[in-house]
Design a protein that fits this description.
about 230 residues, alpha/beta, Rossmann fold, 2 domains, 6-stranded parallel β-sheet, elongated
């Protein structure tokens, strides 16, 4: 059965309305794309202008602190990145000595030539329960750290959990800061991790990141797990 005159008129009207909506949507999309392009152009121009003033390169003193997870993980991430760039690396662990961590096994087994790995601590302070041993271990670690920082073959040094040793005054904060500011080679990067970084170290650092604890599974009874914590 054919369409009546009224049906044909309604159909033509509907088609015209559909075309207008499509055209309007196309115009809206085109206008939105143009606004986005102009916005990004301005952002790029501003960023390019800013980057023109950022010409200096130097070795950085970096501090990862705070109660949240990720301080050591971020430091080891920079070790991996540095290795890929052909930079000589060294890691000195001050606290987690007896932990069989993935990063320690990975670096020692696969990148022994690219990264020196030293373990000074014997475990967390509440595990050793021997202050004199903890102090001796921390001071031994600091001696190793200074040697690695001064070594011309080393470009990046990670001092993992040194902030804990500084917090308990196992190391002298003034001595550590003075060494970093006056004796560290200009192009050597040093990253110091651990919660409760002392104000003197924060003041001396070029880059300070505070990891904030928002939520952690440990509070729900979930223990530390391979690949996540160690």
């Amino acid at each position: 059965m054919g369409r009546g005159p009224c049906q044909s008129v309604r159909l033509r009207t509907s088609l015209r309305s559909g075309r207008r909506r499509t055209e309007d949507m196309t115009e809206d999309t085109t206008a939105e794309n143009a606004r986005h392009t102009e916005k990004m152009r301005k952002i790029k121009a501003a960023r390019d202008k800013m980057m023109e003033t950022k010409t200096e390169e130097k070795g950085l003193i970096m501090v990862h602190t705070g109660p949240g997870k990720g301080k050591s993980s971020s430091g080891f991430g920079m070790v991996m990145r540095s290795i890929q760039h052909g930079m000589g690396c060294a890691v000195v662990q001050f606290i987690k000595g007896n932990w069989a961590t993935g990063e320690k096994s990975f670096l020692r087994e696969r990148f022994a030539d690219e990264c020196r790995f030293f373990v000074s601590g014997e475990g967390f302070t509440w595990e050793t329960q021997d202050k004199e041993r903890d102090i001796a271990a921390a001071q031994n670690g600091w001696t190793i750290a200074q040697e690695q920082i001064l070594d011309p073959e080393i470009d990046f040094v990670l001092l993992d959990e040194i902030n804990i040793a500084l917090r308990y005054d196992y190391l002298d904060i003034d001595e550590v800061v003075d060494f970093l500011l006056t004796r560290k080679p200009r192009m050597t990067h040093v990253c110091l991790t651990g919660r409760n970084a002392k104000p003197e170290l924060i003041e001396a650092a070029d880059l300070v990141t505070e990891m904030t604890l928002i939520k952690h599974p440990f509070r729900d009874g979930v223990k530390a797990q391979k690949g996540v914590e160690f």
